[in-house]
């Protein structure tokens, strides 16, 4: 039975004064951004072209992503390291100034509060590059009881990502040969177009890339226009974060593929758990989970047939007619020629090639459980 939704899937998102506008907000509107979302209470660009065009731009060239909602939660003060160590199970005692680490922020029951990249900006200063959640409020709430000697704030830093195989050549033209010395998951200070920036060799694309952190909002429009002009010889394209590529790479989206009800072991991130650390929030719960083993596992799912459309909320996944999970991320991969997605499923159904059925608004679609990633990224120790 066809159950296609009668209402349009695309509606207008009105701009409001109460939602934060980034330093690039006016520039992205001038240059053709056709849709916006709200991420960390900030308008974020959701598309300049169609997703497959932007996907191919990422794979073949270099793209500029205005990721304005990626806020930097700053932890600063004499006890900054101790406080960040309290928030995360990952041991950061050997994290040097200029290094970045992918970390999980955990709750007392082991649930995931956020999965930021942690940047050590100075001896007494860390940035948590936050996914969409109330991480600032959580951190301040923790310190209301911990009472450590730190200041916790949104640093009002706005990020751009430059991603794709030609990103190194483009960045060399902007920042000089010194950019070649910037190692994966490290950061440095650079001046581009007369603007002081922190640049890290990180990104959310499964491709080579960089993130540029602007600390002076007044320079936003100037920096954006300079990057576009300087990028013309390199074929620079504007785009939004590629959901297709990040799903191919098995990269998780907080709020979709994991949340407070998910623990790190379920999503394959046990490698970030340093349970021998003296103390961190969730240690007792995570130690117990590690000993017992997770009851569910993150897996890929693959569905043959034409492109599935209308995925705006999780769809039910069935095994032998029984609802066992939900698909939380879904996209059509042009390279693989099929629809692919992510799910967390009970161990009994997690074996590769398990036959599954996806309940779409237009009826069921047959598929299989798969391993991850679908298409890998370069393996570099972080």
Structure description:
With about 375 residues, the protein is an alpha+beta fold. It has 3 domains: about 25-70 and about 155-245, Probable tRNA modification gtpase trme, domain 1 (Gyrase A, domain 2, 2-Layer Sandwich), CATH 3.30.1360.120; about 70-155, Alpha-Beta Plaits; about 295-380, Elongation Factor Tu (Ef-tu), domain 3 (Beta Barrel). The protein is about 20% helix and about 30% strand. The chain has helices at about 25-30, 50-60, 80-85, 135-145, 165-175, 220-230, 245-250, 285-290, and strands spanning about 35-40, 40-45, 65, 70-75, 100, 105, 110-115, 115-120, 125-130, 150-155, 160-165, 185-190, 195-200, 210-215, 235-240, 295-305, 315-320, 320-335, 340-345, 355-360, 365-370. The strands form 5 sheets. It has a 6-stranded mixed sheet with strand order 12-13-14-11-3-15, with helices on both faces. It has a 6-stranded antiparallel barrel with strand order 16-19-18-17-20-21. A hairpin with a 5-residue loop joins strand 6 and strand 7 (about 110-115). The longest helix has 12 residues, at about 135-145. Mean pLDDT is about 95; it is low at about 1-5.
């Amino acid at each position: 039975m066809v159950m296609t939704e009668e209402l349009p899937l695309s509606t207008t998102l009105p701009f409001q004064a109460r939602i934060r506008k980034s330093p690039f907000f006016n520039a992205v509107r001038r240059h053709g951004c056709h849709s916006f979302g709200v991420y960390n209470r900030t308008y974020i660009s959701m598309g300049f072209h169609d997703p497959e065009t932007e996907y191919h731009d990422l794979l073949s060239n270099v793209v500029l992503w205005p990721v304005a909602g990626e806020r930097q939660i700053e932890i600063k003060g004499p006890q900054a390291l101790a406080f960040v160590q309290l928030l995360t199970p990952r041991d950061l005692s050997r994290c040097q100034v200029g290094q970045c680490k992918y970390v999980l922020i955990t709750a007392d029951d082991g649930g995931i509060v956020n999965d930021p990249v942690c940047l050590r900006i100075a001896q007494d200063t860390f940035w948590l590059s936050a996914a969409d959640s109330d991480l600032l409020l959580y951190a301040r709430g923790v310190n209301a009881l911990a009472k450590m000697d730190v200041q916790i704030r949104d640093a009002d830093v706005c990020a751009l990502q430059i991603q794709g195989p030609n990103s190194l050549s483009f960045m060399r033209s902007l920042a000089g040969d010194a950019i070649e010395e910037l190692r994966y998951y490290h950061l440095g200070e650079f001046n581009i177009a007369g603007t002081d920036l922190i640049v890290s060799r990180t990104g959310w694309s499964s491709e080579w890339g960089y993130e540029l952190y602007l600390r002076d909002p007044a320079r936003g429009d100037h920096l954006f226009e300079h990057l576009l002009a300087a990028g013309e010889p390199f074929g620079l394209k504007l785009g939004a974060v590629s959901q297709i590529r990040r799903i191919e790479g098995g990269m998780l989206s907080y709020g979709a593929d994991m949340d407070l009800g998910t623990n790190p072991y379920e999503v394959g991130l046990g490698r970030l758990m340093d349970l021998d650390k003296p103390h961190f929030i969730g240690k007792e719960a995570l130690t117990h989970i590690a000993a017992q083993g997770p009851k569910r596992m993150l897996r890929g799912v693959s569905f043959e047939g034409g492109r599935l459309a209308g995925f705006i909320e999780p769809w039910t996944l069935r095994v032998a007619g029984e609802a066992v999970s939900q698909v939380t991320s879904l996209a059509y991969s042009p390279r693989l020629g099929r629809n692919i997605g992510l799910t967390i499923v009970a161990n009994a159904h997690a074996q590769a090639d398990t036959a599954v059925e996806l309940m779409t608004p237009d009826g069921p679609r047959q598929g299989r459980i798969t391993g991850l990633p679908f298409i890998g990224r370069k393996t570099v120790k972080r």
